[in-house]
Specification:
By secondary structure, this protein is mainly β. Helix content is about 15%, strand content about 45%. It has one domain: hypothetical protein yedk fold. Strands 2, 5, 6, 9, 10, 13, 14, 15 and 16 form a 9-stranded mixed sheet that branches. Strand 13 and strand 14 form a beta hairpin.
């Protein structure tokens, strides 16, 4: 599952590529983590939302704990109660430059990045909903991984071709579900020595 991705574009650049109007003043980090803000395209706008639907948790004595961000939605779970309303009514595009998976031994894992060759930015299928905890929040839709990443992880985001973006946003649930498929084209793979746990604080304005 994806727990880190890069997005190296401003709201204006995202809006130009996806035909959407940027919400004034929105900015996000160039590396996006669960529970942190990222850009999505929804309702004709480039909007700032929190990555992950909040999942309420309780402690051993029943006391409420900090919610957990559920940042990935498996395609085989989209019709369950947790995801159904968002899948049927609130689909979005998530602009991504590359996503990362952890590779290597536990405690020494490094970042392996996946992207589309020659593409600075592409669209991943997403869902969103308003929340009491974090305001509007979004999640990535995941499917079975492709051969390019089989030795690292068995799941990957739903990458949308340009001609499929409008259908994901505006099609009926049957049409949208048909787009939840493994990316069939090659991926660029960048294996790094960067530790998985490290974080940066760069901001795109």
């Amino acid at each position: 599952m994806c727990n880190l991705y890069r997005m190296k574009a401003s709201a204006q650049e995202v809006g130009h590529l996806f035909g959407a109007v940027p919400v004034e003043g929105a900015n996000v980090g160039t590396e996006v983590y669960p529970g942190y803000p990222g850009f999505v395209v929804a309702g004709g706008q480039v909007r700032r939302m929190t990555w992950g639907f909040p999942l309420a948790l309780k402690g051993k004595q029943g006391q409420p704990l900090k919610p957990k961000p559920v940042n990935n939605a498996r395609e085989d779970k989209l019709r369950t109660s947790f995801w159904r309303d968002s899948f049927e009514r609130r689909r979005c595009l998530i602009p991504v430059s590359a996503w990362a998976e952890a590779e290597g031994e536990k405690g020494r894992m490094t970042r392996t990045w996946y992207s589309l060759p020659g593409e600075e930015l592409f669209a991943v299928a997403g869902l969103w909903r308003p929340t009491a905890e974090w305001g509007d929040a979004y999640s990535m839709v995941m499917v079975e991984g492709c051969p390019s990443m089989a030795d690292v992880h068995d799941r990957m985001p739903v990458v949308l071709a340009g001609e499929d973006r409008a259908r994901w946003l505006n099609g009926d649930p049957i049409e949208a579900f048909a787009l939840c498929r493994t990316w069939a084209n090659p991926l660029a793979v960048d294996r790094t020595q960067d530790r998985w746990a490290s974080r940066t604080a760069n901001v795109v304005r």
